[in-house]
Amino acid sequence: MICFPLIKKALFGLFFLILTVSSGLSRKESQIDLPECIKYLSQPSYHCTQEYNPICAQNGITYKNECIFCSAMRPDVSILRFKHFGRC
């Protein structure tokens, strides 16, 4: 009888852990980060900063930052695609 409260607490803790982990995994899958190119549409490409936050495109080229990637994508949207953040 003394073990019952301990088992109950352990099961509750295990249930809470499973619930927390599964909700975290589903949130990561649904929140895929993509470059926000819409904010660069109205500015010329030469207004991009030189900060280094690399973006890898599907063509294997690493772009220095989001603005430069989005500027390169503008004229050739059908060919240039986002692959991941970071160097290729």
Automatic annotation (TrEMBL):
The keyword Signal applies. Pfam families: Kazal_1 (PF00050). Residues 31-88 form the Kazal-like domain. Residues 1-26 form the signal peptide. InterPro entries: Kazal_dom (IPR002350), Kazal_dom_sf (IPR036058). It comes from the Eukaryota. One of its GO terms (molecular function) is serine-type endopeptidase inhibitor activity. Transmembrane segments: none annotated. SUPFAM superfamilies: Kazal-type serine protease inhibitors (SSF100895). The keyword Metal-binding does not apply. Keywords: Protease inhibitor, Serine protease inhibitor, Signal. This is Serine protease inhibitor Kazal-type 10-like isoform X1. It comes from Phascolarctos cinereus.
